[in-house]
Amino acid sequence: VQLQASGGGLVQPGGSLRLSCAASGFNLDYYAIGWFRQAPGKERKWVSCISNRDGSPDYADSVKGRFTIARDNAENTVYLQMNSLKPEDTAVYYCAARRSLCNVLRLRPDYWGKGTQVTVSS
């Protein structure tokens, strides 16, 4: 079972990035998938989650209206579209999975992917 996050990079404030979380070894259809981020010197925080049942999304208040999470079950991949990026979005972003509901994944994911660095700076 593996999760691979990719798509990070350096972007100017106001710019956009799309992160991908590709799964291998299991079928994402049955899992809630979430994104977390960890800024330097700070604890890891939940960012977004997409349900395994109806694909309904949920977002932290800090990213609501700017980030969009979506899943492509055919590709076994979840995406995080990040628009209107701010310097405070700078962090290592991790995707995670749990065969449960989003509110459970937020507390304790079963699987973690390696992170991808997002830097928002002029």
Structure description:
By secondary structure, the protein is mostly beta strands. It is built from 1 helix and 11 strands; from the N terminus they run E-E-E-E-E-E-E-E-E-H-E-E. The strands form 2 sheets. Strands 2, 4, 5, 6, 9, 10 and 11 form a 7-stranded mixed β-sheet that branches. A 4-stranded antiparallel β-sheet has the order 1-3-8-7, with no helix packed on it. Strand 7 (67-72) and strand 8 (77-82) form a beta hairpin. The radius of gyration is 13 Å and the shape is globular. The chain starts with a strand and ends with a strand. The model has no long low-confidence stretch (mean pLDDT 95).
Question: Could you outline the blueprint of secondary structure elements for this entry?
Answer:
Blueprint: E1 2-6, E2 9-11, E3 17-24, E4 32-38, E5 45-50, E6 57-59, E7 67-72, E8 77-82, E9 91-98, H1 102-105, E10 111-112, E11 116-120
Parallel strand pairs: 2-11
Antiparallel strand pairs: 1-3, 3-8, 4-5, 4-9, 5-6, 7-8, 9-10, 9-11
Q: Which key phrases capture this entry?
A:
four-stranded antiparallel beta sheet, 122 residues, mainly beta, seven-stranded mixed beta sheet, 1 helix, 11 strands, 48% strand
